[in-house]
Amino acid sequence: MATEKSNDPLHGITLENILLYLVDKYGWEYMCESVRINCFCDNPSIQSSLKFLRKTQWARTKVEKLYIESLD
Fold this sequence. Notes:
single chain, 72 residues, Transcription Termination Factor Rho, Rna-binding Domain, Chain A, Domain 1
């Protein structure tokens, strides 16, 4: 039986893993400049960012877009 593979680059990746990857690749300063949310600019941390992004869909969408673009 063949299993179908998802074409979604976010499939199976947690928001925390996305953040860890982006911070490791770009750093908080670049994240602050590119996404422009306070949790990346003022005393940034993974936990505060996760809390905000889980409640704020527009910000999460921007972070996910940045992640997808970084894979190309």
